[in-house]
Design goal:
Distance between the termini: 57 Å
CATH superfamily of the largest domain: Type I PLP-dependent aspartate aminotransferase-like (Major domain)
Structural class: alpha/beta
Order of helices and strands: EHHEHEHEHEHEHEEHHHEEHEEEH
Bound molecules: pyridoxal-5'-phosphate
Strand order of the largest sheet: 2-8-7-6-5-3-4
């Protein structure tokens, strides 16, 4: 018998997460993974140059890191769990809540990892789709009605990737208040939105606020994400968190140093928000292009007819990488998503797009 017969039935290569494609050339412009374009904050860079403790294991429960994050968001370290990126915190959620057949309510189009990751644990995705562009409105009653005794959790991504939409916070509050299951609020892009759901973690006993240092703090390669969990769950979260929270010593140290350099991070963020508004306005001036308002570090835009795949290919030929969503159920085949880079990178993208459209 083939060794593949021993693989759990939930694990299917065909259903694996589809990575954004890009190639490294000297002039590549990477605008397809919503990364920060900035180098480390000065304090983090200085730390990196002197770091020498890699022969020792990190602190088992990452208390120092959780304290630094707790200080940043205003919660006791006990309420914080971290992981190697927010994707790794999803693993904690799966360990806590998902057993085969349990349902996970999401609203597509949204972050693709939810519908690829939780089914690996036997979770069943229940999709309550967003309304049409340009509003991409949350189907509030639909989400509440989708919850039943078999629901493991609701996940709301706000602001939402890939649409950039910020759903009204009262709607998220209404979901939390009207269901008893956990509501995981993924606010990976909170710092770009001018608001956040942090107070939800105190107001609602079922709210879990998920965040990352990949975007605002520019630490995507270091992999540090975190969740703020309800008080009652704290002992269970500790039991479900892997040793060292899967965060390496150098990543924890870089994260702490970055959070000690908030002014530098906020200056970068402010430039990105200004650039986001410039890119959105410039896109809307191109013939046949419609760019939607965004509360994140990326912009989703619609292209004329069915030109998106061809335009993507032509941008790739110029070593400019943006994101396309060909999956039919997302209904975004005629759209592209561009991350906000440095001003020069954004201008290069806009010029290339104008050329390609002409
Ligand atoms: C909505 C959302 N959640 C989570 C993540 C994962 O972030 P991390 O780099 O912390 O794993 C992303 C990354 O793009 C995202 O867009």
């Amino acid at each position: 018998m083939s060794i593949t017969n021993y693989v759990r039935k939930e694990v299917s290569p065909a259903a694996a997460y589809k990575l954004a494609q890009r190639q490294v050339h000297a002039d590549s412009i990477f605008l397809n993974l919503n990364e920060s374009p900035y180098p480390l904050a000065p304090k983090a860079q200085a730390l990196l140059e002197t770091f020498h403790n890699g022969n020792r294991y990190p602190d088992f429960s990452q208390v120092e890191l959780r304290t630094a994050i707790g200080d940043y968001v205003g919660f006791a370290p006990e309420r914080i769990a971290c992981g190697a990126g927010l994707d790794d915190v999803f693993q904690i959620l799966a360990t806590l809540f998902i057993s085969p057949g349990k349902e996970v309510v999401i609203s597509n189009p949204t972050f693709g990892m939810y519908e690829t990751f939780f089914p690996l644990h036997g979770g069943v995705i229940v999709d309550v789709p967003l309304g049409p562009a340009p509003d991409f409105a949350l189907n509030l009653q639909g989400v509440i009605d989708a919850v039943n005794e078999n629901t493991a959790m609701v996940i709301v991504c706000n602001p939402n990737n890939p649409t950039g939409t910020l759903f009204p916070l009262e709607q998220i509050a209404e979901i939390c208040a009207n269901v008893s299951c956990p509501v995981a609020i993924d606010e990976a892009y909170a710092e770009f939105s001018g608001t956040d759901h942090l107070d939800f973690a105190n107001r609602f006993p079922n709210a879990i606020v998920l965040r990352t240092l990949s975007k605002f703090a520019g630490l995507a390669g270091y992999r540090v994400g975190y969740g703020i969990f309800p008080e009652d769950l704290v002992p269970y979260v500790s039991a479900a968190t892997p040793a060292f929270a899967n965060v390496s010593s150098v990543s924890a140290a870089i994260a702490i140093a970055s959070l000690n350099d908030l002014d530098a991070l906020k200056a970068n963020r402010d430039e990105q928000v200004a650039e986001r508004e410039r890119v959105t306005a410039c896109l809307n001036e191109l013939p046949g292009v419609v760019a939607y308002p965004s509360a994140t570090n990326f912009v989703l835009f619609k292209l004329p007819g069915d030109s998106a795949p061809d335009i993507l290919a032509q941008l790739n030929d110029r070593h400019i990488y943006v994101r396309h969503y060909p999956q039919p159920h997302l209904d975004l085949g005629d759209h592209l998503r561009v991350s906000i880079g440095l001003p020069d990178e954004n201008s290069a993208f806009l010029n290339a797009l104008e050329e390609v459209l002409a």
